[in-house]
TrEMBL record:
Keywords: Acyltransferase, Transferase. GO terms for molecular function: [acyl-carrier-protein] S-malonyltransferase activity. NCBIfam families: fabD. Signal peptide: none annotated. Its EC number is 2.3.1.39. The keyword Protein biosynthesis does not apply. GO terms for cellular component: cytosol. This is [acyl-carrier-protein] S-malonyltransferase. GO terms for biological process: fatty acid biosynthetic process. It catalyses: holo-[ACP] + malonyl-CoA = malonyl-[ACP] + CoA.
Length: 308
């Protein structure tokens, strides 16, 4: 069977201390990208990525440029081996990584815009603390129904797999929401280490600010098809700014994106960046498709061996 490869890019929550270190030490050609990020965010991103602490790395204004950086250099190393995607897709922040690889953004513009995205989310958290939690064991429809009981306070934010939906909302309500979901049959309710009500109307101010920032960025032609998790459609150059503005307050339709890519013939998913969160989700959606993740030399070599 001929391979049809999708590169998939993770979002916030995939950061970990040590990410990118293996590549930095062994591939001198990617070190310049760390220098570019240092200049843009005025911090030593190499030191933070390699040595932490995780609390600093997890600050959203640092996490977002850091994950995009590591995803970008990882993709470059994979493609340098002759392995190229026929489609790219990202989870939340990962859409910026996917679009950069597709050609919509230059690397420096992508870092500048996600730095702003992280800054705006941090500012939103200062005004009103948010919370997110993964609901395990209930269908997307059940989660939507229960969230309606907290209308305007909690929303489905990430439709990740048939039995995992992340909800997002006001931190003050999390305890009551957790209790209700357990009463309704959830197997687990796992609070996430996120302090912003991402992908909800509660942070609509962030969406307005991002619209203004994106207005200052030049969008290049997309050389690789990009599937958006905002509307599960392949997006053309003219719609990129609109979709990234909507992304802030819209749920991540990851489950439907994976189903569509499989329907469109994708039979190899390569998760490009730290951890293997998306690979595990895809396995739960369809265990028959091949999933690989690349985050260090060992996993890079395994992927090359599998596909060449």
């Amino acid at each position: 069977m001929e391979e049809k490869i999708a590169f998939i890019f993770p979002g916030q929550g995939s950061q970990k201390v040590g990410m990118g270190k293996d590549f930095y030490q062994n591939f001198p050609e990617i070190r310049k990208y760390f220098d570019i990020v240092n200049e843009i965010i005025s911090l030593d991103i190499k030191d933070i990525c390699f040595n932490g602490p995780i609390e600093t790395l997890s600050q959203t204004n640092i996490t977002q440029p850091a994950i995009l950086l590591i995803s970008y250099i990882t993709a470059q190393l994979i493609m340098n081996e002759g392995i190229h995607p026929e489609v790219v897709c990202g989870h939340s922040l990962g859409e910026y990584s996917a679009l950069t690889i597709a050609g919509a953004f230059s690397f420096s513009d992508a870092i500048k815009i996600v730095k702003k995205r992280g800054q705006f989310m941090w500012e939103a958290n200062q005004k009103s603390s948010g919370a997110m939690a993964a609901i395990i064991g209930l269908s997307p429809e059940e989660v939507e129904r229960i969230c309606k009981k907290f209308s305007g306070r909690f929303y489905p934010a990430n439709f990740n797999s048939p039995k995992q939906v992340v909800i997002s909302g006001a931190k003050n309500d999390l305890e009551k929401v957790t209790e209700l979901f357990y009463n309704e049959g959830a197997k687990k309710v796992i609070p996430l280490s996120v302090t912003v009500a991402s992908h909800t109307p509660l942070i609509s101010d962030v969406g307005k600010k991002m619209k203004d920032e994106l207005g200052n960025i030049n969008i290049g032609d997309l050389e690789i098809p990009f599937l958006s998790a905002v509307n599960v459609e392949y997006i053309k150059k003219e719609k990129v700014k609109e979709i990234l503005t909507k992304q802030i307050t819209s749920p991540v339709l990851w489950l439907d994106c994976v189903k569509k890519m499989i329907k469109d013939g994708v039979n190899y998913f390569i998760e490009v960046g730290p951890k293997n969160i998306l690979s595990r989700l895809i396995y739960r959606i369809n265990p028959e498709v091949k999933t690989l993740n690349v985050e260090d030399i060992k996993t890079l070599e395994r992927t090359i061996e599998e596909l060449k």
